[in-house]
Amino acid sequence: MTTTTSTSAAATATATAFPTNQQHKSLVLKSAILSRLLLLTLILIWRSLLTPYDTSAPLNPNCLEIAKGQNSDSDVVLFPKLASAIENGIVWDSVFFVRVAQCAAYEYEQSYAFLPLLPLFISFLSHTVFAPLVPLFGYRAVLGFSGYFINNVAFVFAAFYFYKLSVIILKDSELALRASILFCFNPASIFYSSIYSESLYALFSFGGLYYLVTGGNTVAVVSFALSGCARSNGVLNAGYFCFQTMHRAYDALFLKKHAFLTIQVLTAGALRCICIFTPFFAFQAYGYYNICLGRDLHEMRPWCKARVPLLYNFIQSHYWGVGFLRYFQLKQLPNFLLASPILSLAVCSIIYYAKSRPEIFFSLGFQASIEEKNSSALLFSLESVPRSNIARLPEKSYSKIQENHNLRQRKHMNRVDPVALPIENDPLAKLGYLSISVLPFILQLGFMAATAFFVMHVQVATRFLSASPPLYWFASHLMVHPGSNRWAYLIWAYSAAYILLGSLLFSNFYPFT
Question: Subcellular location, in the record's words (predicted)?
């Protein structure tokens, strides 16, 4: 009777939670779409009211190998004014992405800094879905339109995955909703609505993280690998599998006392990380093949002769002056001030977590209680073991695994979306931002923030860190604490100011970030 009653209560709670989460998903999607429409409207307004600082956007020299690309110079279009408006929106790094897509080649050494996923998507859409538009607007304008379309649609899906991920990590749908809406109106929003790689990176990063924490390791690996095809920092997503492997290996070796299983765990983790790194290094090899092979030694570029010839690092250092402490100059003080809000938020979020959960933070999660580790078992323990190895495990370990397996089977029989589960009733859900599940995200944020401050052009930190989940989780956490009105005002004022400033400066070819 008790079992039937609790099953019925759980079913009722799930049924109650499911509509709420469905409403939240709908609200997140609406917010994401509204935010993109707002950004595109602002771009159009600022472009029409102001004269661009740099008027070179419409320039379009022929591809070096004309047979490989199409050139808009010879196009006779039906709507030249609309075509011109689209082409005028191809500014800053967008020029490189569109150029690669247009010419189907990396023509210059510095263009290899822009990874191929976005140009490939742009080229594909321009030759398929939007091909009928070429006679109307011209090829380059259609390329630009494809880029805008891809990134704005990708952002909507990224926001959706971010909400689903946040619910599972924070175990609080209200907190997840607030964080997701903050992401929809984040300070780097202009880059998510322009022809930049941020939207695709966020989509595949958030998607990969969602599948990682729900047990879909294969899909997570593919998503993370694609994020590395969009932006170089996508390879850092391999760190999540390193974190998972470290804890699973500890679980297998010291708790289950099973050496062979430990080797299996380490091997699987290493292979997953290699798969995530492979696309980025394959692209470096492609650059080496095009630039270095077949040349005399005295004609080779300096990086070709290096022991580890990494083209990306050379480009960043040689063309843009990226390097450790190289940006620490008095004349760069305005750029440090521009990046100070996002860096301050990142540092505060890390310090707050470390001070609130020192035993978790400084032990990398090894000092956490069994109950808390079980709340995020897919990251911190062996959730499942291959059947071939079960016979070799001690009897107690086998019973424990079988019990967990039966519990998982009962959960899967309900076929309920993990985001719809009434997890707010879990005592550990009260931890929210301070839960152990947030730890690997905090560690990655710390590494990225340090890199942005000490190595990169610091003003890029605003968009470089904009796809880091802890920033929005921490900001959302601050908003529900005593005196939260002040924090909410500051956070929303910061986002609104950077959205307005970014759309004004960036769209008119003025320096922003």
Answer: Endoplasmic reticulum membrane
Sign (positive or negative) of CA dihedral 447, 449, 455, 456 = positive
Q: Domain span at residue 85? A: 18-196
Q: Tell whether 414 is covered by a domain.
A: no
Does residue 126 sit within a domain?
A: yes
Predicted pLDDT at 56: 72
Which residue blocks in 231-298 are alpha helix, DSSP H? 238-250, 259-291
Dihedral of the alpha carbons of 347, 350, 354, 355, in degrees to the nearest 10: 50
Q: Is residue 351 part of a domain?
A: no
Query: Residue 169: CB partners within 8 Å, gap ≥ 6?
Result: 213, 435, 437, 438, 441, 469, 473
Q: How many CA atoms lie within 13 A of 170 on its CB side?
A: 25
CA R_g for the chain: 25
Angstrom distances, CA of residue 132 to CA of 7, 40, 139, 371, 425: 56, 23, 10, 58, 53
Q: Is 391 exposed, middle or buried (0-12, 13-18, 19+ CB in 10 A)?
A: exposed
Q: Does the structure show a pLDDT above 70 at 362?
A: yes
CA distances (Å), 220 to each of 265, 328, 387, 416, in order? Answer: 17, 37, 23, 20
Percent above pLDDT 70 for the chain: 84
Rounded Cα–Cα distance for residues 308 and 310 (Å): 6
Query: At 67, is the pLDDT very low, low, confident or very high (cuts 50, 70, 90)?
Result: very low
CB 238 within 8 A of CB 276: yes
Q: 171: helix, coil or strand?
A: coil
Banded pLDDT at 197 (limits 50, 70, 90): very high
In this prediction, residue 383 has a pLDDT band, given cuts at 50, 70 and 90, of low
User: What average pLDDT does range 304-319 have in this prediction?
Assistant: 93
For the ranges 269-283, 350-364, 476-490, the lowest mean pLDDT is seen at 476-490
What is the 3-class SS of 14-49, one letter each residue?
HHHHHHHHHHHHHHHHHHHHHHHHHHHHHHHHHHHH
Q: Is residue 211 within 8 Å of residue 220, measured between CB atoms?
A: yes
Domains of the chain: total: 1
102 vs 116: CA distance, rounded Å? 12
Distance, CA of 205 to CA of 199 (rounded, Å): 10
In a domain, 274, yes or no: no
Q: Does the structure show a pLDDT above 50 at 191?
A: yes
